[in-house]
Amino acid sequence: MTQANGYAATAADAPLAPFHFERRALREHDVAIDILYCGVCHSDLHTARGDWAGTIYPSLPGHEIVGRVSEVHPSVTRYKAGDIVAVGCMVDSCRECRECTAGFEQHCLNGATFTYNSPDRQTGDITLGGYSDHIVVREEFVLRVPDSLDPAAAAPLLCAGITTWSPLSRFKIGPGMKVGVAGLGGLGHMGVKFAAAMGAEVVMITTSPEKGEDARRLGAHDVLISTDKAAMAEARSSFDFILNTIPVGHDLHPYLGLLRREGVMIIVGAVEPLPPVHGGALIMGDKMVGGSLIGGIPATQEMLDFCGEKGVVADIEIIPIQQINEAWERMQKSDVKYRFVIDMASLREERAAA
Ligand code: NAP
Ligand code: ZN
Ligand code: ZN
Known about the structure:
alpha/beta, Quinone Oxidoreductase, Chain A, domain 1, Rossmann fold, 2 domains, six-stranded parallel sheet, globular, binds NADP nicotinamide-adenine-dinucleotide phosphate, binds zinc ion
């Protein structure tokens, strides 16, 4: 066991506060990682606030982790002390089922072990995430960070990056396609960057007109304000694909109307009930709506390597961990440009001063 420090919520209505706990001693294939940076995902907030059923308290979120390997179990072959590595939304899975062996560990038929709020496969202890000074993870779930990437700006690739990369590559987004990205937050801004890097014509679909200039800087060719009825009507039947990152349940019809024949909309944001959809909105135009959950480990490494080659990282605002509650409040007001990343040196300094 090692002594660990982090920030956790003890109840749905409690702010995140300093929390002391233990990390397991290294088991076979385990890698111990000193966390340097951890991105702040809206799922962290949803989980700790109890928006989704099943939160176990204390809840210690964080699944966009970049750190330095401090120690490895002698059985580890892939990493050594000193390596700069990353951990995303999963820390284990059965590694044997059809989905795991195909590289879709997030859909493990025996249940993936997520980085937080998930029972450990051996002890049943609930996993505690990256808002902490170190973490212990099986080597198969540790990713390599290309040297060319800034470690802080690379952290959000581990969830916002892979979650948007995965459906864009599944639907073979490329030149000649018109792609809309709905919601310019952490996921949305990565979606815009990836779709543009893949060669598509990209339109940012936003509720915030003031984000238009940023959207263009991120790679969008055009901006569509979803609350502007005339502009939405003009854009009808023109999109091949829409990546929908809106974090709450919402009426899909205005977005379905934007799709052209055989257009596809993939929902990644609303992990909650959506209002009823009229069958006609899908039947007329042969349209499809689907979903996508993060991405598997091989796809995550592929995405990181792509980012290393093309120099793609997130646009971040670095915060000390002591400002995490304010950051969450701002995230709830859609006031994020475009991902908060916690500098974990702030946690070490706080502990050293205590
Ligand atoms: P975020 O940074 O808060 O961004 C969400 C954006 O959606 C906001 O910036 C805002 O953009 C827009 N928005 C917010 N409320 C809205 C509303 N009521 N109607 C229309 N648009 C609204 O969140 P995130 O970290 O990108 O996460 C987005 C969602 O994805 C969360 O629910 C998260 O839990 C989920 N998620 C899913 C997966 C997965 O595997 N599927 C993985 C990670 C996260 P504008 O100002 O541009 O309108
Ligand atoms: Zn996430
Ligand atoms: Zn499995």
